Every structure is written in C-alpha cells, then in structure tokens.
Amino acid sequence: MSYFAGIEAVQYEGHESLNPLAFRHYDPTAMLGDKTLEEHLRFAVAWWHSFAWEGGDPFGGRTFDRPWFGSEMDKAKAKADAAFELFAILGQPYFCFHDVDIRPEGASFAENTANLEEMVDYIGTKMESARTRLLWGTANLFSHRRFMSGAATNPDPDVFAFSAATLKTCIDATAKLGGENYVLWGGREGYETLLNTDLKREREQAGRMLTMVVDYARKIGFKGAILIEPKPQEPTKHQYDFDVATVYGFLKDFGLEGEVKVNIEQGHAILAGHSFEHELALAASLGILGSIDMNRNDYQSGWDTDQFPVSLRETTLAYYEILKAGGFTTGGTNFDAKLRRQSLDPEDLVAAHVGGMDICALGLKKAHAMIEEGSLQAALEARYAGWNDPANTAMLTSDLATIAERVARDGINPEPRSGKQEKLENLVSRFVA
C-alpha cells in the first residue's frame, strides 16, 4: 500500500523552478567547499511529529486521520512503511525516533520492551534496502502519566527505576540500528513549585542517571555521541536543563563535560530568551556542540509551536556558527517540526520538508559565502586586535596591583570605540537580501 500515492521523488530543479515539490536550492550532490550539501546538512526526519502526532493542541484534539494510527503492532509497522516511503521521496539520509513513536504502548515494561525489539527488527529490515540511516534515538520519558513528576528527578524511586530500565532498552535499540548519537530529552525534568521539591536531591538523581547512561553506552560498545537537549520553561516553569550554559554547568558538576554534548533546538533557544546562534556559538566555544533540531516558534504565541523553518536570516546565522565550529561530525539537522493542524494531506508533509530543506540549504550557502568573503571575521579580529600585544595579554596572568601600576605609569585613559553593530548587520543583509 502506498501512503503517498502519486507523489514522485523530489528532485533538484534550480532556483527558477515553480514546482512546489521540487528543491530550488538543495542539490544534495553539489559541492560546497570540501563537502556535498548532503554531507554538510545531514538532514533527518523526526518520526514523532511526522508520523505520530495527531494534530491536537491545548484547545482541541486530533485533526489528522492517518491510516497507521492505532495501538496495534500492525499499525506500528504500517507507520514504519509510511516513514520509509517518505524518506525515499525526500532522499533523506537520516531519521530520528523516540521509543513510543515506533512501538505500541504495552501494559508493562516487559511488554514495552518486547514491542520495541520487534519494531527495531522490522525497521532494521527496512533499512537494509533503504539509504536512510539513524541519526539518533531517544526515550520518551515525559508523555505517560507515570512521568508527571519527571523521570530521573522523580520523587518515586520506582519511576526512577522504570526510567533507567527504559533508557537501557532505547540505547540498545539505537545501537542495534547503527545510530550515530543517543539523545536525552528531559521533557519533565523540572518542577512546578519549591513547596514540594528537593532541588539538591533531584539534581543529584539526574546526574547519577546521566552517568549510568554514559557508562552503559560505553560498556556495550556504542560509539556514537551522547547528547542532552536543553529544554526551558515547558511544561514546567523551572527546568534543570534550561539552556546550553545550564547544561554545561551540570556536566561539569558531575564530571561529564568530556562525555556528553548538546542537541540544540531553535525553538528551545528562543524560549530560554536566547537566539539560536547564541546557543550554537556558546556550545561550540565550550566544546559541546553536537547536533541541532531545526524548527521555529511563532513569536507571537510565546510557546514552542515547532514550525518548519522559513527565515533565511535565521538559518544563515545558525549555519554560520556551525561552519565556524567546523561543521557537524556525528550530528545533523533534524526537523523537529510539525505540520499545522489544518494541513491534513500527505502532500503537506512532503512540501513542509521540501521547504525546510531548501531554506536550510540556502542559509548554509549564504553562511559559507560570508565566511569565504571574510569581512565579518576581519571586523571581529580588528575589534580584539589590542589583545595581540604581549603586554596586554600578560594582564590575563597578572594581578590587580601590577595592572594598576601599569595604568598609572603609562597614563592609560581609554575612550570608547564603536562596536559597529549596524554596519555588520547591514553586511549580513547584503548576503541574505
């Protein structure tokens, strides 16, 4: 059975094409520097939003009517069939999944595990004849009511145990399918009120759980990267993994900064009060940039709407930071984005990914051009050029008294110098106009 009947494989037709189901900017085989666009971008489809989401929102339920919806194993396999059909249409190199996306929910941990193992075998068989690989797997430890107070941070030790056991099965599944990363996504690792919360205990539980994940992954020979996805504000006010800086402090506290990197989502960066490029640049500077979820929020709604990217400026600035950091290694560009609940047709799912892939490809090209042209980097280096003087660099290993003597002796009395922000913003606009 075809779930996307009549929809041909998407082709690159060039920027003048008017075909809504053709790539205008993403030619996967085109070279950009020393890599193809496909090697740079490493696109992935999110199994959850593309195939498991039913179109609901806080004010209304399901609007989608997919033939694979249901809690039976044959429906889960039909969902996998539909997924690989879409992967082939898009020419997608990767996909990502949570355990609950690919398996039916069982009545017990044992049943969940059996269902997951059966579906991993089924997906593995489909991968044998497909070009699409697994970018990363993860566990959904937030949707079921048992996780209402968190997973690793839950006050109930039985929930902690159930979560740890589930993580083991998901790491096993990711390793078996050849995943290049494993992601920890702590959707409910936070709290609603301090009146019933022991912050110190919960944070220590989270640190211990992450340590066990790293230890187990290495024990079974998993070679991929372990990633944490920073997750601010939703659904709780206070999340333990709020942003890149918070996650890095957490990793340092538990001695895991050399073992774990971050998977950064654009929408989460905005919810944390940052720009996407800020989070990317900070992660790169700390040596923990791993992978990204590319989406956007509706800036008027104030919550995580998970929309496909459409802004050339946003994608350009994001890939500018990624390219400056050396590009992806095991990471990639996962579309953690969903259709609008009024977009019901199979064609809508194809068109959404085509548009997202195209705007990312164009943004990557613009970012590469900015780096090649060099004006931004030259302006940055000029702003800090004074630090190239050995006498100035020596201050960073000196002391206050010695520096004070130097200021008095040399009559140092600095005047402010322009940061030229508007000029640099105009420079970016030359590339993205």
Automatic annotation (TrEMBL):
Q: What are the protein's GO molecular function terms? A: magnesium ion binding; xylose isomerase activity
Q: Output the InterPro entries linked to this UniProt entry.
A: Xyl_isomerase-like_sf, Xylose_isom_bac, Xylose_isomerase
Q: Does the keyword Metal-binding apply?
A: yes
Q: Where in the cell is it found?
A: Cytoplasm
So what EC number does this one have? 5.3.1.5
**GO BP, one annotated term:** D-xylose metabolic process
User: Which GO CC annotations does the UniProt entry carry?
Assistant: cytoplasm
Q: How is the cofactor bound?
A: Binds 2 magnesium ions per subunit.
Under Gene3D superfamilies, the record lists: Divalent-metal-dependent TIM barrel enzymes
Q: Which residues bind Mg(2+) 2?
A: E265, H268, D304, D306
Active-site residues, Swiss-Prot/TrEMBL: H98, D101
Q: Which UniProt keywords apply?
A: Carbohydrate metabolism, Cytoplasm, Isomerase, Magnesium, Metal-binding, Xylose metabolism
- Its top-level enzyme class, in one word, is isomerase
**Reaction it catalyzes:** alpha-D-xylose = alpha-D-xylulofuranose
This protein's cofactor list reads:
Mg(2+)
Q: Where, in this chain's numbering, is Mg(2+) 1 bound?
A: E229, E265, D293, D336
As for family, the record states: Belongs to the xylose isomerase family.
Partners and quaternary state? Homotetramer.
Q: What is this protein's record name? A: Xylose isomerase
- What organism does the UniProt record list as the source? Vannielia litorea
